[in-house]
Amino acid sequence: QVQLVETGRGLVQAGGSLRLSCAASGLTFSRATMGWFRQAPGEEREFVATITWRTRDTYYTDSVKGRFSISRDNTRNTVYLQMNGLKPEDTAVYYCAARPAFSSGSYYDRQGYRFWGQGIQVTVSS
Fold first, then answer.
1. Taking 90 as the threshold, does the pLDDT of residue 107 lie above it?
2. Which residues are CB-contacts of 21 (< 8 A; sequence separation ≥ 6)?
């Protein structure tokens, strides 16, 4: 039974910072690529960031490059998303997701992420 649980503050002013955490259980965390996705009202869920299991390479969607940073702590089975310079357009429900090793699909594609958290609302006020 895989569980991904997101935690973090949900409200921040524009220009502020916020860190989301995702604690994973029920899977071999060290062999799972971890990702963050987000979904704004009326929009499709979009890729935000990922960190691979093998090399810990990181990838980001263009809109968050230079502002967001993904990291992982395999001793704690936790992945983090540090968000700086937040903008109102970052407002969305943020989802933690796990992509087991050798899964199909690209790192930015939802297809390969087999396990998902419940999501956490992040609101950036202007």
1. no
2. 6, 7, 8, 78, 79, 80
